[in-house]
Every structure is written in structure tokens, then in C-alpha cells.
Amino acid sequence: MATLDSLQFEMERRVILFKPSTTMPDLSQLGYNADPNLIVTPSTAGEQLIYNCPNNTRYVNYDASGNTVQEWYKHSQPNGWRELGSGGGSIYGTDSSTWQLDMSNSGTILQSDGSSNLSIKGIDGSLGTLIVGALSIGSITGYLRAIDGSIVVDTSVGQLLTGSGTLTGDDLTKDFVLEHNINSLNHITTIYESDNSEIYPEIKIGSNSDTISFSYAPPTGTDHRVVIMGF
């Protein structure tokens, strides 16, 4: 005959395993079939159960054929789950939809949000913050733009091209050739005097050099600043 102590022992050693087909108290199925870390605001009874279950609870999600995709265990509250791996003693798994940085110290989790976006989470499953001291991108076509909380590459905006130089007078030269090498005719060239006021000599632009022609030869020691912007 079972005793209270033996029943308590059996209950404590039993592993709780939830799955999409788990029967709920109202006889409906749990229903949720995805990464449990993606539950931020529970909207169904099944999501409430996953979100609020105790640590060390297990959960498994399936593919369309009913095969196991991944098994998880509840690591921290309120909704921090880790993948159960299949080799090397790892509990983090090798699913390419989830990566964890600094595993030994319970660091940041980089994870798909179920679409094409990458979600940054803390070890407890809550959304994290990315702080970048310096960002280096090898090559990019277009501009990085922040749109509705996301950073995207906008290919409709061309790369901004710039150039600059100084034209120094010598009492003889009226026509100056400025090499800028921006390789584009789509640019504007502006000339400034030493007091930063804009002047308007004749300008003939070229893909890699511009010719600036004055009506008189600027005096010796007179510098004119040239600024070029284009695309």
C-alpha cells in the first residue's frame, strides 16, 4: 500500500513534460507548438501554463509530422527556457535558430523570433538590449536606416560621395584643376574664401576632377576652400 511519503517521493522525482497535445483542465489541448521563449505576453491557457510553470519543467514541440523538433527545460522565471542538447553534455543544443553567447556565464541568447528577425534575450527569456561600442561592416550596398524599431539596408539611397581641396593663388593662375577621384558626375562643387563666404567662379565638373576658373588670378597667398558632395 502506498504511503504519503512514498507518493511524495514519486511526485518529486517525476518529470513534468508539456507538449502541444497535453490535455488542459478544460479538456482542450495545450496547443502551443513553438519556442517557449517567444511567449512574452501569454494569450491562451496553454501559453499561461508554459509561461508560469515551475523551473525544471520539460516542454517539447513537434513538426508537422509529429516528430520532435526540440525539447526544452525551464531554467528561470518567469519564462526562461533552455534547449536540451543531444551530445557532449551540452544543454544548449545546436539548432541554428538559437545561439547563446558566453554559455558558461549564462550570457545573452540570440534567437529567431519566428520570422526573419533576430531577437536578443537575457538568460531569463526577457528581451535584452544590444549595446555596441563600435560596429564594423565589411561591405554594404545602400544605407543603414532605422525604421519602426528595426535597422535595415535601404538600397534606394546612393552612397554619399565627398571631396575637398584648397586653391592657392599665385598672381598668375586663373584656371585650377582639382583632382577629387569620386568617379561621378552627380556632384556639386562649392568654393569658399578664407572668411568662409561662398564665391561663384566658373566651374566645369568631371568624374574625377573639376576645373575652377576665376575671372582674375587670385593673389599670392590667397587660399580658397573647395567642398564637393554628390552620389
Features:
231 residues, mainly beta, Immunoglobulin-like, 4-stranded antiparallel beta sheet, 34% strand, rod-shaped
List the helices and strands and how they pair.
Blueprint: H1 4-13, E1 17-18, H2 45-52, E2 58-62, E3 68-76, E4 80-83, E5 98-100, E6 109-112, E7 118-121, E8 143-147, E9 150-154, E10 161-168, E11 175-179, E12 187-192, E13 198-199, E14 202-204, E15 209-213, E16 223-230
Parallel strand pairs: 1-2
Antiparallel strand pairs: 2-3, 3-4, 5-6, 6-7, 8-9, 10-16, 11-15, 12-13, 12-16, 14-15
Description:
The protein has 231 residues and is mainly β. The chain has two domains: 111 residues, no CATH class; 70 residues, Immunoglobulin-like (Sandwich). 8% of the residues lie in helices and 34% in strands. It is built from two helices and 16 strands. Strands 1-2-3-4 form a four-stranded mixed β-sheet, with no helix packed on it. Strands 10-16-12-13 form a four-stranded antiparallel β-sheet, with no helix packed on it. It has a three-stranded antiparallel β-sheet with strand order 5-6-7, with no helix packed on it. Strand 14 and strand 15 form a beta hairpin. The termini are far apart.
Strand order of the largest sheet: 1-2-3-4
Strand content of the residues, in percent?
25-35%
Q: What is the count of helical runs? A: 2
Q: How many structural domains in the coordinates?
A: 2
Helix content: under 10%
What does the radius of gyration come to? 33 Å
Average residue-wise pLDDT:
80
- Largest sheet composition: 4 strands, mixed
Please summarize what this structure is.
With 231 residues, the chain is mainly beta.
